[in-house]
What we know:
By secondary structure, this protein is an alpha/beta fold. The protein contains 10 helices and 12 strands.
Amino acid sequence: MDWQANFPLVEGLDMNIRDAFRAGSFYEETPTSCRHHAGKLLDSARLPGDLPATLYGGIVPHAGWLYSGRLAAMTFKALDQAGPLETVVLLGADHTGAVAMAEVFDSGVWRTPLGDVLVDADLAGALIETGEPFRANPEAHRHEHSIEVQVPLLAALRAGVKIVPVAVPPDAQAVEAGRALGRLLAERFPRARVAGSSDLTHHGGHFGSPGGHGSVGEQWTRQNDRRMIDRIVAMDAEAIVAEALRHENACGAGAIAATVAACREMGATRGVLLDYTNSYEVIHEMYPNTPDDTTVGYASIVLA
Length: 304
């Protein structure tokens, strides 16, 4: 398929503009190369023929596109196949320590190499009006990559798509935030969908190697990731943050827990694992003799 979605640049005197600070590192920087790579990822995202007809959201990884872009594309492509995406609430991780509660980028645009993607200010405003744990805080998103790497993929997939970026800390507020979000979407924005951004276990290299080195560590990571995946597909939102704290198998546990809780309120009863891989598998397929034994897990999951 020819993925040609383009978004105009939007300018405004008082507009929040979130620049694409990871362009050129996590994904391509120029419009041509970014569009080409996004198209390849979307084309390579093969979906099963027996997907549920109704999907409410999903989980996407957020490493560089080389490593996890195909799996992120798979989740978004599945959601779009179930119904053309109009607004996606993107729930992100907190790698910077700037997130104290559910921080909403409430209006403006996110800049991408493919043009600007608008924030759905109506939905974002309604979310903030529900009260704590949500608040408007665009600044919390300035240097967090977990949502940014998703936006060009969405731009390539569906022209005119809008987003509501929300950074969610990994604490007890996550499930509460997800429930409030899910109720709001079910009652007022039923066509919106939710995507939670998180990688899974980080093992080897400077992360430490409790499971061993090389392929032994990779297998240990798979088993550790399976614990988190099982929680997600069982829709066990309340157990996810504790699981991540105990087994260190998600960097965006708050985003995952909130996504599962939100989709449960919207009507989801189960998760479907579309695919799993990890950085060790990806890099050793390309470079079999590399000494790098770092393993970071990635899953594509939809919630039905």
